[in-house]
Write a structure and sequence with these properties.
The complex is a heterodimer of chains A (about 220) and B (about 120). Chain A is α+β, with helices and mostly antiparallel strands and about 220 residues long. Chain A folds into two domains: about 80 residues; about 120 residues, Heat Shock Protein 90, CATH 3.30.565. In chain A, about 60% of the residues lie in helices and about 20% in strands. In chain A, helix 1 runs antiparallel to helix 2 and helix 3 packs parallel to helix 4. With about 120 residues, chain B is α/β, with parallel strands linked by helices. In chain B, about 50% of the residues lie in helices and about 20% in strands. Chain B is globular, with a radius of gyration of 13 Å. The chains are: A alpha+beta (about 220), B alpha/beta (about 120). At the A-B interface, helix 1 of A face helix 1 of B.
């Protein structure tokens, strides 16, 4: 058990590294846009000093653009902060939808890079007792391996349903997605996470579905 | 000098194009690799400024395709990552001087564009 926990922690570190790299890239982009807008503002002022009239509407647009990018960066930093805190979160009862939406937000940029759209199914409330960070990490592994085989215009929908004493998380892929290949890679790489969650991974190739079955109540 | 800007951040490339125009450089911009390949098909450019991490195709692969269409074109890579991996890949492709990290100062970019254009 100790050995598996160690490997789960290693996977967690890799997960943290990937996500912080992606989010820092997004922040850099927002800062780059603020930099260009501020630079354009300086250019317009320099031209005004030489006699070209300043257009108030243009200035308003620039101010709004800067404000929007600051809000964007702030939103990314908030996500990063929440993610950093989640790494140490103990076993807790969490709404699966909350986990899905957060994982989708974390992976959004990388998904866009690969032409993949992540959606969250329905609005039903299914709760699971687990460490949310480990569930997010396992979901990320599924998405990562989807991204690796994606040739663009891919979709994946995250959903969950109650099944007696278990919660079944479903990743519904587009028709033709090599779900068995993805599932095999996830099971190999994510074994320590699967054990830590007391979960099972199964596939339904005909329906292009991967199921992660977790106990509703986690037993230490 | 005609410059093509390729980055998925539309607000970044459109503003940068406006600032370059103020400095006498004709700059066009696109936000994806398909549009980049399309515009290069119809218009000549001296230099392309490429984001390393573009959706669906990275800047390094795009450079190879653009070179086939416009053999004389020069390239500058732009990235928000600044990672060792990016740095090494771009260095191998076009020399360390042609690799700029976001956010880039307009004076630095202008100097680089002029330097490459005069080569």
């Amino acid at each position: 058990m100790i050995r598996f926990q160690g490997t789960a922690n290693t996977l967690g570190l890799l997960f943290c590294g990937t996500m912080t790299a992606s989010m820092s890239h997004e922040i850099k982009n927002a800062l780059a846009i603020v930099n260009e807008n501020a630079g354009l503002l300086a250019d317009l002022i320099a031209l005004a000093e030489k006699g070209r009239p300043l257009n108030p509407e243009r200035l308003k647009t620039l101010a709004a653009d800067i404000s929007r990018q600051v809000q964007r960066a702030d939103s990314i930093v908030s996500r990063l902060n929440r993610f950093a805190h989640s790494a140490g979160q103990p076993v807790t009862t969490t709404d699966t939808r909350e986990i899905f939406e957060f994982t989708a937000a974390l992976a959004a940029r990388m998904a866009a890079m690969k032409g993949v759209t992540i959606t969250v199914a329905g609005d039903n409330t299914v709760q699971v007792q687990a460490r949310p960070f480990i569930v997010e990490n396992l979901l990320w592994l599924c998405l990562k391996h989807l991204f690796a085989v994606s040739t663009g215009n891919q979709t994946v929908q995250l959903g969950a349903e109650n099944a007696d004493s278990h919660v079944v998380i479903g990743l519904q892929f587009a028709e033709g997605t090599p779900v068995e290949e993805i599932s095999k890679l996830v099971t190999q790489e994510g074994q320590p996470l699967i054990i830590a969650l007391q979960a099972e991974v199964s596939t339904d190739a005909q329906r292009s579905l991967i199921r992660l079955t977790l106990p509703k109540k986690f037993e230490e | 000098m005609r410059v093509l800007l390729v980055d998925d951040e539309e607000e970044l490339v459109s503003t940068l194009a406006e600032r370059l125009a103020m400095r006498g450089i004709t700059a066009s911009w696109v936000t994806g690799y398909r549009a980049a390949l399309d515009i290069v098909e119809h218009e000549p450019f001296d230099i392309a400024l490429l984001d390393v991490r573009l959706p669906e195709m990275n800047g390094l692969d795009l450079k190879r395709l653009l070179e086939v269409k416009r053999p004389g074109m020069k390239f500058i890579f732009l990235t928000g990552h600044g990672s060792e991996e990016d740095f090494n890949a771009c260095s191998a492709e076009s020399g360390r001087d042609y690799y700029l990290i976001k956010p880039v100062q307009i004076e630095v970019l202008m100097a680089k564009l002029n330097e490459i254009f005069q080569q």
